[in-house]
Amino acid sequence: MADPATIALAVKVAAQAATDKRTWKVIGVIIAALLTPVILFILVVLNTLSAGADHNNAAVKLCFNGGAISDTVPAEYANYIKDMRRSFLGLDKEILQISSQIEDGSLDSTRVKAVFYSLFFGLENPKLNSSQYKAYTDCFVNYEKRTRTVEDGNDSKSKEEYTVAVPLKSMPEIYKRLQKVLGRQITSEEQANATEIYSRVLYGKGTLNEGDSFDWWEDWSPGKMEDTKDLLSEGTLGAEIVQLALTRLGDPYSQELRGTGRYTDCSYLTIWCYKKVGINIPGTAAEQAKFCAEKGLTVSKNDLQPGDLIFWSYRPNGRFMHITHVGIYAGNDKVVDASSKKGQVVYRDLYNAEKQVMYGRPHILGRKNK
To answer: Where do the TM regions start and end (predicted)?
Structure first.
């Protein structure tokens, strides 16, 4: 490959000879010869990256769905897939055993395998023994002792104790248990990768990002602006934040263009409003929620005050609490938020109560967090 000095020399020669039409053809050949290796190198890198992504997607499909392994799959990937398939058989055995002990709900076998895949795919030998598979799978359930009445015969009955498996819903709790069992830390990248794999297996596509439009969002009613008059105590920081948010009503939604002109998305709206009152918060809805949690700035839904942040989660996305959206509570069960579905900043009734996963009050920091 030509080094920068050589390429610079070629360009200099071309500039000096530019007035001589007879030299143009020669110069073109020289520059092409110098730059072709560079172009070819770039194309090879891009093709390699694309092939790597294809191999990863193919590996996930083959591990979870089965099927013949194509000859185009690299040998090392083929071996990893075979190892993972054998491990999945071991997991299936334990999942079946646990499922027989579940009374309510079910164990999400796809989740169990997606996490395992993220933690073990690519290792030289991911296969565990039966006790290790059990210890791993047990991290996804709680075991409870319950009592039931049984007939002993001759119309007599007695009480007996039995064990029930109760599937865990909290992924942070599951990862905490896995770290103890595996004796190592599980990184946020591994957790995000597990969620990505889970989404691809279950939905056929990657996880949703912040601001993606969700078809099942409830419609919104705009409310009346006079609703806020008696709700906002003048001089309070929360009231000031709401009033700032209301000045952005109708501003266009865009993740790509947020911060330019009047464009905003859900988290940029909250950043902008809070920054105006001297408080800096992180750049995404999930990071804002994490910030609130780590700083002890969370509140209950019953204690919401104007200016508080409301966080929603719709699908797994690998971020903190799988949060995908944030809005500013405006009082009287209203919220101001930048809606991707409506394409603008709106003032509306609170919606999707079952999807609200957290509430934060960063404005308690006052003007100190600069």
So the answer is: 27-46
CATH T-level topology, domain 225-365: endopeptidase fold (from Nostoc punctiforme) (3.90.1720)
Who's near 4: CB < 8 A, 6+ residues apart?
none
Residue 358 φ/ψ, nearest 5 degrees: -165, 155
Full-model pTM: 0.51
Q: What is the pLDDT along the chain (370 residues), one digit of tens a residue?
A: 444 444 444 444 444 444 444 444 444 444 444 444 444 433 333 343 344 455 577 888 889 998 998 888 888 888 889 999 999 999 999 999 999 999 988 899 999 999 999 999 887 766 688 899 999 999 999 999 999 888 877 778 888 899 999 999 877 788 889 999 999 988 767 877 787 788 788 777 665 444 443 332 233 333 333 344 444 444 489 999 999 999 999 999 888 788 888 999 999 999 999 999 999 999 889 999 999 999 999 999 999 999 999 999 988 777 888 899 999 999 999 999 999 888 899 999 999 898 999 999 999 888 544 4
- Residue 150 to residues 101, 144, 153, 164, 308: CA-CA distances in angstroms? 17, 19, 9, 16, 53
- Provide the residue ranges of all domains of the chain, joining segments of one domain with +: 4-65, 75-203, 225-365
How far is residue 25's CA from residue 323's CA, in Å, rounded to a whole number? 59
Residue 314 near residue 325, CB atoms below 8 Å: yes
Element spanning 69, H or E: none
